[in-house]
Amino acid sequence: MNSPQPIHVAIIGGGLCGLALAVALKQRDISFKVYEARSSFTELGAGINIGPNTLEAFRLIDASLGNAYLATAARNPSGKEHVWFDVRLGAAIDGHKDGETITSLMAPPTGSMCIGRDALLQLLAQKAGLLDGPGRVSAAFDKKLTHLEQSASGVTMHFEDGTSEQASAVVACDGIHSAAPAVPQYSEAGVYRAMLPVQELEKVLGHDMARTSQVFPGPKGYLILYPVSDTMMNTGFWVWRRGTWPHREWVLPGRKNKMDDDLRDWGDTVRGIMNLAPNPPFMATHYHAVQPESHWRNRVCLIGDAAHAMPPHAGAGSGQAMEDAYVMAEVFRLVNKIDHTQAEVNAAFSAYEAVRRPRYQSIVETSVESMHTWSDLYDTSITQERLADWTKLAHTRFESIWNHDIGADARNAQAMMREKLKRQTAI
């Protein structure tokens, strides 16, 4: 009689979510392997803004990861450490000047903590032991999944290169383009995005503001600006594009002329910032507007953007991926201590989804609404009463993302899993 084998988890996708799960599983002595379709760990995109909940997720995944992030992340200048974003007007209105700071959104203890996406990816790969040494065997590149075959004992993965491998369970972390049940929908908005040198921004904004995270609400859109290093700032100029998206590609290169048209009613400050972007692309935002009944089936589960891609207007997508990875690792910790029958894997996935789904669905909705939060402020009369109401609404909306007990989520998922297994044993 064969003795039970410890669970082995296949992670499809070596992006931020997949590597965060790899770190979490490694920390808990759970066997895993990452399958990445590209030839290396590479993250597209400029930078991400980390809120208090994400920092807590880093610490819960691996305490050393939280410390490493704190040592790496770019922050606002001295005196602005607890500021998430200064809110400044993108054009003059109601007696307020162009570029005037009208309020600040606070997010203690982190304030605005940002990092380049690829820098974070390399940090996660290093913490997962996947960059060099014996841990390298836990990652495989140029592995594009074509299909899966499930059985009562495990999952067989088939790849485009003709190879096949097996695992006890598969977690798909391959992003919004995953072959997932949910089809991404166009959000009717998009962004001109660029990385700008602080040295050049100083000529437009001055020394301190060229290094501070800011949002500029303006005519039918907003501009966001935040540091990703000591020398570079990430900027995104968001505008509405109502109707359907007419192009096959989501990213259209070289759109400066169209951007100049969109900037026509904006003030000199925002125009000065975007004039530093030589010829930026326009990226149409898509998200999972409609969710399937479940994101797991038997021994396969989708997490991160593969399950719940969201617009970036609340700065919450990466944080939700980190929370997903932590809770998933905690239910796998329980599976790892018992014989991993399909019933136990199903109990793990079911408990994970029962806890996580209400939270990430709520944040998808908040992220969609946040485009209105930023862009609609300028299009209404900016009285002191209106500004106070708006600031209160913004804090309430974003604090619901930041101030959440992620550790309690994991404990609740483990308790649900134990209860499910207990009921199954009693039948």
From TrEMBL:
Q: Where are the transmembrane segments?
A: 6-25
Biological processes annotated in GO:
secondary metabolite biosynthetic process
GO MF terms, alphabetically ordered: FAD binding; oxidoreductase activity
Q: Which UniProt keywords apply?
A: FAD, Flavoprotein, Membrane, Oxidoreductase, Transmembrane, Transmembrane helix
FAD-binding domain location is 8-366
Q: Which InterPro entries match?
A: FAD-bd (IPR002938), FAD/NAD-bd_sf (IPR036188), FAD_monoxygenase (IPR051104)
PANTHER family per the record? HYDROXYLASE, PUTATIVE (AFU_ORTHOLOGUE AFUA_3G01460)-RELATED, HYDROXYLASE, PUTATIVE (AFU_ORTHOLOGUE AFUA_8G06050)-RELATED
Q: This chain belongs to which protein, by name?
A: FAD-binding domain-containing protein
